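Your task:
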Amino acid sequence: MLRLSPASCSLALLLVSSGCSHTPTEKEKRSAEIHYDLALQAQQAGELQEALRELQLSLKNDPDYPDANNAMGILLHLAFRRPDEAVKHYTKALEVRPEFSEARTNLANVHLDQGRYDDAIKLYELVLNDMLYPTPFIAQGNLGWAYYKKGESERAVESIKAAVTTNPSFCLGYKNLGLIYDETGRTSEACRQFTHYRENCPDVAEAYMREGVCQAKLGQVDAAKEAFATCETKAKAGEQVMKDDCRRLLEKL
């Protein structure tokens, strides 16, 4: 998803003027919705610059549009690596729609990336209190990762296990459990989690790579060879680095 927020009372791309008193007309609100929808279509097609332009137009018409601000935050955070500007958009979205749990989760994700683990944890916990939030396993899993990065491994495992229990197809949860177990020396359990990752994401090359590396650590050479070979085959056109890495790992065995 994507959302933009150029100020309607300013030429600044990412700042909404606090002194602006203009209330969008129904025509402007409708235009904002149309440009937002076009931005989503562009993002889904991988046309990030076009998505940015459409979100700019959306927020030019309605600077307070929560969905557009949330989407702009996602675009700035994940595509353009501008987290501080993303925070402004998530904050605006929450000012207008305080119950907007998706925006709150996304704001927590920025804090997680910035190493502000306590801030992220507080926001994830707020989201998990929202019984109407449709994807609580995402916040639950990210909460666990925040605990892990903070140094609380057991709480991390407990939280991420809750996430995969809620959604047994939550691939990132299995991957992160595998990483935690591997980095804390529990290799056999790590392999089990990476196997779950591969089983639930059979088209993801990284899943085979992670499982193969873990199997190699346990001395399961034949299984690791098969995993690396499959990883190389599964790697998509834009994953040349992954493809090369799996080939090198296979050659080493």
Notes: The two ends are 41 Å apart (CA to CA).
